[in-house]
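Appendix B. One record, verbatim.
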Amino acid sequence: MFAYNLYFKFRVIITTMKKILFVSIILMILSGSQLYAQEKSKKELRKENRDAALVQEKEMIAQILNEQDFEFIAVELVSSGTAMISNVRLNGLWGITVTPNTFKCYLPVYGMSSPVGRPTLLRRLDFFTKDFKIKMDDAGSRGTTITIVSSDNVGNKSYTFRLMVTPNGRMSTLVVSSDFTAPVSFSGNLNY
């Protein structure tokens, strides 16, 4: 009889422990899913904050570009036409400057002039004009594309400058093309 009572008490304890364990597991699962839901909402909140900051930066860049008062500083020549020169680091002296009434261009043009094929600075685009047309296109999540059509000082050579500005304005790419030369690409920064 003593063994039966001990067995019965042991069975009640085991059953109670199973119930407690089952309830504990259920509570852990529920609390884990609540933590996951909180974590997910924190991630969503961070994403919303990043998206809002990006929209604000894009609006600021669009306003600056609409005012037509900015400067592109070329930091690297990415490619230069048929000479296949690429990734030439530049000092901060090269670039274009746009104001509502003027356009200034000071950019290098590289090529192969020596017999061993070393890149040399053959000439530079260096002109200042009031005769230019500017057009801006919203490229959506890629940023803004600005197209500037201008002619040099004498007015006999026409150039097209295509400036792609990222939504936050931190990195830009400039492609310069004309009817008489191959396109030249630069990467750089936008100053405003």
